[in-house]
Amino acid sequence: MQELVLKIEGMSCNHCKMAVEQALKTLQGVKSAEVDLGSNSAKVAFDPQLVDRGKLKQAIEEAGYDVVD
């Protein structure tokens, strides 16, 4: 398992938090995803053999939010 913290722009409420967490959790290989609205970030635990940073970023962007590199 690997952990990664992604900075995200565009989240402002609990609905945003849940949308991002759900988008990440639907990816095969993601064990957990916790969004912190205070720091505008998501902490993701995942299996790097099944999913990578690019796929995590894509899932967040498809949910309507921006990942800050």
Distance between the termini: 22 Å
Mean pLDDT: 96
Helix-strand string: EHEEHE
Residues in β-strands, percent: 25-35%
Global Rg: 11 Å
Strand order of the largest sheet: 2-3-1-4
Q: Please tally the β strands and state the result.
A: 4
Short description:
This protein has helices spanning about 15-25, 55-60, and strands at about 1-10, 30-35, 40-45, 65-69. With about 70 residues, it is α+β, with helices and mostly antiparallel strands.
Report on the structure:
The chain is an alpha+beta fold and 69 residues long. 32% of the residues lie in helices and 35% in strands. It has a four-stranded antiparallel β-sheet. A hairpin with a 4-residue loop joins β2 and β3.
Characteristic terms for this protein:
alpha+beta, globular, 35% strand, 69 residues, 32% helix, single chain, 4-stranded antiparallel β-sheet
Task: Tell me the layout of helices and strands.
Blueprint: E1 2-9, H1 14-25, E2 30-36, E3 41-46, H2 53-62, E4 66-68
Antiparallel strand pairs: 1-3, 1-4, 2-3
